[in-house]
Amino acid sequence: MRLTSSASQQGVDWDGLLMLVLSTLFILATLGLSWLWLIFKTYRTAQQAPTPSQIQRPLIVFGKQLHHNQIDNDYHARLQRVLALQTDQPIFVLGGITAPNSVSEAKAGETFLLHRQPSLESQLILEESSRNTLENLKQARLFLARQDNPLQVALLSNRYHLYRCQALAQGLGFDVTLVAAEDRFDGHWTNCYKIFMEAFFSHWYHTGARVSRWLNNKRMLAKIH
After folding, report:
1. CA angle 53, 58, 61 (to 5 degrees)
2. Calpha distance 69→103 (Å, rounded)
3. What's the order of all strands across the beta sheet hosting 124-127?
4. CB contact at 8 A, 183 and 152
5. How far apart are the first and last CA of the chain?
6. Which residues contact 142 (CB under 8 A, 6 or more apart)?
7. What is the pTM assigned to this prediction?
8. CA dihedral defined by 206, 106, 101, 169, rounded to 10 degrees?
9. Over 80: is that where the pLDDT of 4 sits?
């Protein structure tokens, strides 16, 4: 099954750029402490996230940018974890097309999963039209609401990515549990770099959310809720 997205292709996101500037200024004003706090929270989540053997909630699997229409090691780990889980719940596979690829992240994930476990076909729900993780989650929320299902989901991604996924989902009203793709966090410098970047993106999101609420800006609030 595929979810259709009402999100339209837009030009420059000036609100997002403004929040990026404000987020960076806030980091500088706090001498990096606000960013450091989110680095700690991102790292702690990466260390502590569970790897359950079964899930009794709808499962949301985050896509990742493809390379020449092929999945990379991180996305491979996410999809392998799906295959290792025991669940009879819907499985949302998220991710649209990113240049220069011609295949959506969700479609590549579906192909990988069905090649190895065809019985999953009836459970898979693809969201491949949205431009970013927030829009992906909004489409999943809309689907669950239409089915009169509670917004109780499990989020599956790489350990370094889970804190931000959780923050975005909770901001949209989801009740979440986490599922880590890897058995444990690998402290290789590349993963540490990803922790730093994820914390920066989380800082950007939290800044935008707080400023939008402070200003009660309905346009900006609509983007994050």
Report:
1. 75
2. 6
3. 2-3, 124-127, 91-94, 59-62, 152-157, 175-180
4. no
5. 25
6. 3
7. 0.90
8. 0
9. no
